[in-house]
Amino acid sequence: MPVYVTLCTFTDQSVKDVKAVVAEMEAAKIVQSMGGSILTGYWLMGPYDAVVISEFADDETASAACLVTSAKLGLRTTTMRALNNDQFHRILDKMP
Questions:
Q1: Quick check: 55 and 36 in contact, CB under 8 A?
Q2: What DSSP state is assigned to residue 6?
Q3: In the prediction, which pLDDT does 17 show?
Q4: Domains in the chain, start-ordered, CATH in brackets?
């Protein structure tokens, strides 16, 4: 399944009640209910508050899961498709 890297930041509203928002299991339930899985995640120091590595069947499902999670938990997210080394080399092989 495709892998995605999601960078998360708390909104002004969600950071006011951060203890209630920090619901890792809630995010995992949302992801699982949409057919995906969270591979790993980390809390961050810096411009982003968390990073989550997940997998979904396709880009549309990953996008929908990010929207649902953002709406329920009050987060802003930036999600990127991640390619492993083999996938990247197949791309390079297609170059003239």
A1: yes
A2: E
A3: 78
A4: 3-93 (3.30.70.920)
Is the pLDDT at 24 greater than 70? The verdict is: no
Percent of the chain with pLDDT over 70: 96
Read off the tokens for 48. Answer: 């982003």
Alpha carbon distance 58, 2 (integer Å): 7
- Contact (CB, 8 A) for 22 and 43: no
SS (H, E, C) 19-81: HHHCCHHHHHHHHHHCCCEEEEEEECCCCCCEEEEEECCCHHHHHHHHHHHHHHHCEEEEEEE
Instruction: Return left, alpha or beta for 46; rule: phi > 0 is left, psi -120 to 50 is alpha, else beta.
Output: left
Give the pLDDT band (50/70/90) at residue 18.
confident
